[in-house]
Amino acid sequence: MSTSPVPRRLEYALVDVFAERPLEGNMLAIFTDARGLTDAEMQALARETNLAETAFILPAQDPERERTHGVRVRIFTTQEELPFAGHPTLGTASWLYLNHPVLHGAESIVLDLKSGPVKVRFRAPGEHEQGVFGMMKQRDPVFGRQHDAGLISRVTGIPTEEIDPSSPIQTVTTGLPFCIVRLRNLAALDRLEIPQAAAKAYLAASDAKFFYVFAPTEAASGAAFQGRMQFYGGEDPATGSASGCAIAYMVRYGLIASGHEIVLEQGIQIGRPSRIVVSAALTDGAVARVFVGGRTIPVASGHFSLP
Predict the structure, then answer these.
(1) What percentage of the chain reaches a pLDDT higher than 90?
(2) Backbone angles phi, psi at 63, to 5 degrees
(3) Which residues of 206-232 are buried (b: 16+ CB within 10 A; e: fewer)?
(4) Residues in Cβ contact with 206 at an 8 Å cutoff, skipping those fewer than 6 apart
């Protein structure tokens, strides 16, 4: 008599990243023990969750080793693996802060990503605070190609007169390259609707992976700027990797003072308000010490059963 094989039980958690309250910010799925999964299975699971990104933790045999060597994590969109992404890094490290057998409650946790190690530092939660607040130090930015405003207008659908000419359209990377586009005002940002076929073709021939578009926001919001990141997966409610690039750009071109901490808003137009705390420093003409942080709130957990 034949018996069916016992299905694999894959535990996962859902967290809201860069959120002030549950059901805001950018949701992240985290598979908490992805050992034994193939690349194809990870990609299929990322398509199944259908979120902007899904993270896969690959625990070390000895959890104590992860204190010094970092926790290995891989990140997938619905279409591809990324070497680095901001909200999966912050969200996964925050889940480890709350749940890791050795690193639970640690002052800092290092993730071993494909792009290299990223350290996230934590602030001990207050008595009535939800979730946990963490701040990651991203790689020093690399400033790449400057893009022609007329050409960017054609591929993004943004009228040329709505692009602020006082600083260049430029690719910046702290691990994932974004073409940074500064608009004159919030009304122009609200109208943003990037045609993805044209954008994808342009980006494929450039040094950038995605577009990040931002504009000054209302003073009453408590944020200095508001950003949007539209890509093949739709619109991202919060993009930590782009936020690091954006603050590096802002500091380099004098929009924000060196070392000054500000808040970036994102996700407003799609009903997932996000607040991202950022800073960067300018020393001898070079931007460094890029920090990106925010709050992560656990919202759900469960498991997948796979053959």
Answers:
(1) 90
(2) -55, -30
(3) bebbbbbbbbbbeeeeebbbbbbbbbe
(4) 145, 147, 171, 179
With tokens 């925050």, the residue in question is 94
For the entire predicted model, the pTM comes to 0.93
Q: How far apart are CA 112 and CA 89, in angstroms?
A: 10
Q: How buried is residue 124: exposed, middle or buried, by Cβ count under 10 Å (0-12/13-18/19+)?
A: exposed
Residue 133 CA to residue 91 CA, distance in Å, equals: 10
- Tokens 């001898």: give the residue: 284
- CA-to-CA distance for 70 and 167, rounded, in angstroms? 38
Mean predicted confidence (pLDDT) in 176-182: 98
Tokens of 303: 């498991």
The secondary structure element, H or E, covering residue 144 is strand 142-147
Residue in 241, 211, 214 with CA at minimum distance from that of residue 227: 214
From the list 35, 105, 101, the residue with the least C-alpha distance to 74 is 35
* Structural domains in the chain plus CATH codes: 10-122+296-306 (3.10.310.10), 142-293 (3.10.310.10)
- CA-nearest of 179, 172, 169, 182 to 143 is 172
- Angle, helices 86-99/240-252, rounded to nearest 10 degrees: 120
Output helix, strand, coil percentages for the chain, rounded to the nearest 5: 25, 40, 35
Q: What tokens does 91 get?
A: 């969200």
- HSE-CB at 33 with a 13 A cutoff on CA atoms is 12
pLDDT tens digit sequence for 33-92: 999 999 999 999 999 999 999 999 999 998 888 988 899 999 999 999 999 999 999 999
Q: How far apart are CA 236 and CA 239, in angstroms?
A: 6
**Would you put residue 205 in left (φ > 0), alpha (ψ -120 to 50) or beta?**
alpha
pLDDT of res. 1: 52
